[in-house]
Amino acid sequence: MTAQVPDLIRSGMPAACAGRFVLDGGAWRDMVENLRHSTLPLLGLWSDGVQIHALFMEGTCPLLASVAVMDGRYLALSPVRAGAAAYERITQDLWGIEGMGATDSAPWLDQGRWPVTWPLHDRPPPAPAPPEGVEFTDDAAMVQAGGTVVGYGPAEGDFHSPFHLRLGLPGERIMQVRTRMGYAHRGLCARMRGATVAQAARLVARIDATATVAHQVAFARALGAAGEQAGADMDDAAMFVGELERIAIHLDTLATAADLLADGRFAILAATLLERVRQACRDGCGSRLLFDVLPPAGDTGRAVSIPMEILTELRTGCATLRRLFWRPRGMAMQARGRGILSADAARRWGIAGCVGRASGAEGDLRAYVSRSAGHEGMGGDVADRLAMRLQEVETAVGILSTFDGAAVSVPAGHGAHGSGEGVGCVEGPTGPVWHWVRVEHGRVAAWWCGDASLLLFQALPGILSGAVYEDVPLILTSLGLSAAGADL
Amino acid sequence: MAYLNLFWPDGAVLPRMVPLDIFHMETGGCAGCAIELRSLSRVLVEGHSDIRFVSTPRQAGLLLVTGSLTVDMAPVVELAWQAMPGARLLAAVGDCAVDGGVFTPGYAVLGGVGGRARASLLLPGCPPSPAEILDALIRWRTQGEGKAT
């Protein structure tokens, strides 16, 4: 049955974008019905106002199905793909397009404070007066159990994008989790429409600082698929800078987790290595956080490099980190059994990337990484996720070492842009990052992107239930959640 | 804080003594400035500095904002500001917080907090490095921190 859905999608009318097929209403309904018996993972669902697009991953190959929106409605995918629920609610918030049969229709981004309703709609209706307070509906079980309700975020004095969790604690353990998003929504889709490719690329680099290179590469690949030159001939540079970002983000996560677990030796070493990498990024790539490194936003025709002594230091440091991590009463022992994301839950929500791999759900868009890398345990808890990140740092250092310290040239972007449509996917530090773009006469006509965070936010109730409140920051850190990437 | 009138003339502003307690808020940017602040906070903790990042505005003397101000975060910033005790100051770090940066005002974004409120410290950059932030904080402190509101 699994193979039927891709065939069904390909039976649709091919669109301008490679791998995208436009289905009629009946074929879309058949696709939804067949998805019930298929394991084809859904990566994203969005609209351009005229059609609804669903992005599936067939191995490492993107496959898009589109259907025309009829009377502001389409048949929802959330009954057969749990991860589609947030995308449907976002589409409802931004476009006013309703998913028929959706599992949940409550607003996801719109908290009632925007000056317009459905801001991307052709004729957005005026918004009612903003609500005076926030209302949450608790489960019957939670009401019956009573106890305390504790809020987490949006301002905790820590250093991540804002979101709010409402945690129900009838006793010591968390029983109910409600997420409230939209605090980091900047209206990126509205900003992208009409922007030149260069302007759009500058925005893309600033969607989410924890995956800026992944967003830059995915956008450049989408442009490349759309017939632009920006995405061509940059595989080496994309791999080089992408692995550099992976090292930095994983080290940052590990250092933060070590701080939370009060492992001072691990935290100091990880933070020191991180700072060395950031300084090397500044010296060798021009930006500590690797903003605007790749075309079309980056400097034209520059070269990126990292000194071999930094890689040697990283290799030695990783060996020490590994020893500290697995030592008796080390981080691995402390974090064991906390914040479990089972393999079944990961597949149910469509979670891939390093978080999914730590749960045992296979999937990596990087063709240059072997799958045979061994890892101790795949229970999907905090210890596994941190171990997976540490392992990926070591792998990335090995990949960067193959360049022997040589500078990698970044191809120059060019000013002339035509028309086209394309999709680009890349493996970011936390999970897959994808961009879809339609360019008309050098300007972005329609755009959408996604990363792993939105799926992770939806899976949070399952991950956090049963945890104690004190573990929440540690679990969130190990997941690498980014509200900036989820809210757009 | 009415009891302070027993010891100080009415309306006098108490100079805030060391340490400097900072409450950081990311108000809806890419979180790049927040990442650099995290690096800075590690350095401050390791160096036993008297500049500290605290986890509640009730302990803070300086509200440090990064990122563009989204519509949904505006009331949260206001609540945090009202929760700060006594003399309090506002700092905007990064291009987005200073003037909106790439995130110009739109249906979901109000722009930079630096353009909408009187900030004591404005530090542009996309993002400013931890060394630049620390340098700006120390320089601003030595130049006269007592102008609290």
TrEMBL record, chain A:
<dbReference type="GO" id="GO:0048038">
    <property type="term" value="F:quinone binding"/>
</dbReference>
<feature type="domain" description="NADH-quinone oxidoreductase subunit D">
    <location>
        <begin position="309"/>
        <end position="401"/>
    </location>
</feature>
<dbReference type="InterPro" id="IPR001135">
    <property type="entry name" value="NADH_Q_OxRdtase_suD"/>
</dbReference>
<dbReference type="InterPro" id="IPR037232">
    <property type="entry name" value="NADH_quin_OxRdtase_su_C/D-like"/>
</dbReference>
<dbReference type="InterPro" id="IPR052197">
    <property type="entry name" value="ComplexI_49kDa-like"/>
</dbReference>
<dbReference type="InterPro" id="IPR029014">
    <property type="entry name" value="NiFe-Hase_large"/>
</dbReference>
<dbReference type="Pfam" id="PF00346">
    <property type="entry name" value="Complex1_49kDa"/>
</dbReference>
<protein>
    <submittedName>
        <fullName>NADH-quinone oxidoreductase</fullName>
    </submittedName>
</protein>
<keyword id="KW-0560">Oxidoreductase</keyword>
<dbReference type="GO" id="GO:0051287">
    <property type="term" value="F:NAD binding"/>
</dbReference>
<dbReference type="GO" id="GO:0016651">
    <property type="term" value="F:oxidoreductase activity, acting on NAD(P)H"/>
</dbReference>
Automatic annotation (TrEMBL), chain B:
<keyword id="KW-0472">Membrane</keyword>
<keyword id="KW-0408">Iron</keyword>
<comment type="similarity">
    <text>Belongs to the complex I 20 kDa subunit family.</text>
</comment>
<keyword id="KW-0411">Iron-sulfur</keyword>
<dbReference type="GO" id="GO:0051539">
    <property type="term" value="F:4 iron, 4 sulfur cluster binding"/>
</dbReference>
<dbReference type="GO" id="GO:0016829">
    <property type="term" value="F:lyase activity"/>
</dbReference>
<keyword id="KW-0479">Metal-binding</keyword>
<dbReference type="InterPro" id="IPR006137">
    <property type="entry name" value="NADH_UbQ_OxRdtase-like_20kDa"/>
</dbReference>
<protein>
    <submittedName>
        <fullName>Formate hydrogenlyase</fullName>
    </submittedName>
</protein>
<dbReference type="InterPro" id="IPR052375">
    <property type="entry name" value="Complex_I_20kDa-like"/>
</dbReference>
<dbReference type="Pfam" id="PF01058">
    <property type="entry name" value="Oxidored_q6"/>
</dbReference>
<dbReference type="GO" id="GO:0046872">
    <property type="term" value="F:metal ion binding"/>
</dbReference>
<keyword id="KW-0004">4Fe-4S</keyword>
<keyword id="KW-0456">Lyase</keyword>
<keyword id="KW-1003">Cell membrane</keyword>
<feature type="domain" description="NADH:ubiquinone oxidoreductase-like 20kDa subunit">
    <location>
        <begin position="30"/>
        <end position="138"/>
    </location>
</feature>
